């Protein structure tokens, strides 16, 4: 409930306290730095009377940088700082949806003694701690050594509150994915059969789509996925997209790099097995792991073998490789413990064993400061307290009462004074069919936001008329789309058929004859050979077009290209750019539903916009580099 809604109810006559009264009451709730007493009390009230399966949980901890300055905390009447970082610990259910901040402090590394104390306190509240998750920062690697955790030794420690149970140690899987991507781009991995994985390999894969509008990999770009630098390397999604089955299939079909493709597939399957989020996921490996799941065990065994390969010039494994090995061993141990405790039919959603909730929590702590991403110590303390309060209220807990419930009118009012709602996990599941329009728009909007100099874009726009005469533009235009040697179909034609399948999926209720999901066979006709790419990358949810619809799609594509051909950059600026073409195509096709035509025109317009903007950015980069050379030469 928003503040405006709350005030509306008060003005309508509902007997609710004022916002000032609610705020004054909530100020009585205090979370102390370096103490877990208040949050343990909340956790105890939440877990009271719940069955064992709902009390299974993991601890996650990480550090966040704060502004290394002294400042005054008016709430505590105390000078705070200077501090360099915030240490935050959260507890998360392994089965349910609850999570709660447990502990925070400044400039305090996680040690074995502190971790044992937090496990004991969580267990005293009724929680059953089964694992701990952290990234591979230097202090956390030191903690692993102190606990005796290693990839070639044990991967768990005895629960300090119950000697009969183990606490399994995990590295944060999204963090491992980013590190794996970084090393594959920065170093060289030679496979047993002579295959070679490095930056040049991924550049070659992306070159299959170079200069094309219909792409096999519409979500991937060189700058965002291969040439990624600095803070952009912290994003998980580009790393996952680069190490995906689609990239492996493109490398195998168009480059003949079968060994490299199989290695990437092993990574993709292993990461799916470690990232189970939903029982209804299109990918079987992301539906949860049980003790007798042979498919999961094989995926983890293959990943285990793959990450043991050493990079060129390295005598030992990288930390991310050791992290994978520890996580795989711990996942097996945790699944065995859970099935032994809850029965053979139980399972573990492996995607819950990561730091996504903690990263979302840090995002909210930073976000309250607007453009200032590093809050002062007192600001961080206040925001942690407010977010803890908000999460408690979301769990139905009254932080001011030992047995209260936030569903009462007075306590529910506290929800309106809380800050914005806790965001969902980073690792969200995308439907297998995807949204091609959104992918295309995201591709150029995110990259354009990363352009360093806006003036370069303006300069590039002014030179569009001559852009086709630049060497790079001529090279892109002259390069033909590579062919699949087995079918003779070009990559661009595969991409066009994939787009036609996307429209068929979106318009299935309007006209089911346009196509069908790959899990089903097309009624009464053979599948077009151009749909092979969609079938190769699909897990059953993507749609392949019918032969008739693919022919119509090509005919409408010809009309689209003719309509925009005379424009300098092949895209009209006239008003009603979509609707005018819809009307023209409707008049020419006759019987086709206008909603299907409109879906095609919108998609095709977005694809053209993405293509033009990529050319603009490429030209801007060339101009920027040329200017740097001129400045360097004097």
TrEMBL record:
Ranges where the record places region Disordered:
403-436, 466-489
**What start-end ranges are recorded for coiled-coil regions in this protein?**
none
Which superkingdom does the taxonomy of this entry point to? Eukaryota
One Pfam entry name:
TNP-like_RNaseH_N
- The UniProt record lists the Transposable element P transposase-like GTP-binding insertion domain at 175-281
Occurrences of domain Transposable element P transposase-like RNase H (ranges): 34-148
Q: Low complexity bias: where?
A: 406-424, 466-482
Q: What is this protein called?
A: Transposable element P transposase
Q: Which organism is it from?
A: Amphibalanus amphitrite (Striped barnacle)
What does UniProt list as this organism's lineage? Eukaryota, Metazoa, Ecdysozoa, Arthropoda, Crustacea
- Tell me what gene encodes this: T_37
């Amino acid at each position: 409930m928003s503040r405006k809604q709350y005030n509306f109810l008060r003005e309508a006559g509902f007997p609710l306290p004022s916002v000032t009264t609610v705020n004054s009451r909530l100020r009585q709730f205090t979370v102390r730095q370096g103490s877990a007493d208040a949050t343990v009390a909340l956790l105890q009230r939440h877990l009271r009377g719940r069955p064992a399966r709902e009390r299974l949980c993991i601890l996650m901890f990480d550090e966040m940088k704060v502004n290394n300055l002294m400042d005054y905390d008016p709430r505590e009447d105390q000078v705070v700082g200077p501090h360099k970082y915030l240490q935050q610990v959260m507890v998360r259910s392994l089965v349910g949806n609850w999570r709660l901040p447990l502990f925070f402090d400044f400039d305090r590394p996680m040690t074995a003694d502190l971790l044992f104390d937090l496990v004991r306190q969580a267990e005293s509240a009724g929680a059953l701690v089964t694992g701990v998750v952290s990234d591979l920062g230097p202090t956390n690697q030191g903690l692993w050594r102190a606990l005796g955790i290693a990839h070639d030794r044990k991967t768990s420690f005895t629960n300090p509150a119950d000697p009969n149970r183990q606490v399994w140690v995990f590295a944060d899987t999204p963090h491992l994915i980013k590190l794996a991507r970084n090393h594959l781009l920065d170093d060289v991995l030679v496979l047993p059969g002579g295959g070679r994985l490095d930056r040049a390999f991924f550049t070659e894969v992306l070159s299959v789509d170079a200069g094309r509008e219909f792409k096999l990999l519409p979500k991937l770009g060189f700058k965002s996925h291969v040439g990624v630098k600095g803070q952009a390397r912290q994003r998980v999604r580009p790393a996952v997209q680069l190490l995906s089955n689609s990239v492996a299939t493109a490398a195998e079909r168009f480059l003949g790099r079968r060994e490299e493709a199989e290695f990437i597939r092993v990574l993709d399957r292993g990461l799916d097995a470690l990232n189970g989020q939903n029982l209804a996921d299109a990918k079987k490996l992301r539906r949860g792991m049980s003790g007798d799941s042979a498919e999961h065990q094989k995926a983890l065994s293959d990943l285990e073998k793959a990450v043991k390969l050493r990079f060129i010039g390295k005598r030992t494994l990288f930390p991310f490789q050791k992290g994978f090995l520890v996580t795989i061993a711990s996942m097996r141990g945790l699944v065995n413990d859970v099935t032994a405790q809850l029965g053979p039919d139980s399972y573990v959603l492996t995607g819950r064993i990561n730091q996504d909730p903690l990263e979302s929590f840090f995002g909210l702590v930073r976000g309250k400061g607007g453009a200032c991403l590093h809050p002062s110590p007192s600001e961080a303390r206040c925001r942690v307290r407010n977010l803890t309060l908000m999460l408690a209220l979301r769990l139905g807990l009254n932080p001011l009462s030992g047995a209260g419930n936030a569903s009462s009118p007075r306590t529910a009012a506290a929800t309106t004074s809380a800050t914005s709602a806790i965001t969902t996990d980073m690792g969200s599941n995308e439907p297998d069919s995807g949204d091609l329009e959104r992918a295309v728009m995201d591709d150029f909007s995110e990259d354009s936001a990363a352009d360093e100099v806006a003036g370069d874009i303006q300069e590039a726009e002014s030179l569009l008329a001559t852009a086709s005469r630049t060497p790079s533009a001529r090279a892109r235009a002259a390069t033909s789309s590579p062919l699949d040697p087995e079918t003779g179909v070009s990559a661009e034609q595969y991409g066009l058929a994939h787009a036609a399948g996307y429209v068929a999926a979106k318009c299935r209720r309007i006209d089911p004859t346009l196509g069908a999901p790959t899990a089903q066979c097309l009624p009464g006709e053979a599948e077009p050979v151009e749909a092979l790419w969609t079938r190769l990358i699909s897990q059953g949810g993507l749609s392949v077009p019918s032969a008739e619809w693919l022919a119509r799609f090509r005919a409408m594509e010809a009309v689209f290209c003719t309509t925009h051909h005379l424009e300098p950059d092949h895209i009209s600026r006239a008003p009603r750019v979509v609707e005018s073409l819809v009307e023209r195509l409707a008049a020419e096709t006759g019987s086709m539903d206008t909603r299907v035509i409109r879906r095609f025109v919108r998609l095709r317009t977005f694809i053209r916009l993405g293509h033009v903007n990529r050319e603009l950015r490429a030209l801007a980069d060339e101009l920027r580099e040329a200017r740097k050379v001129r400045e360097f030469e004097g």
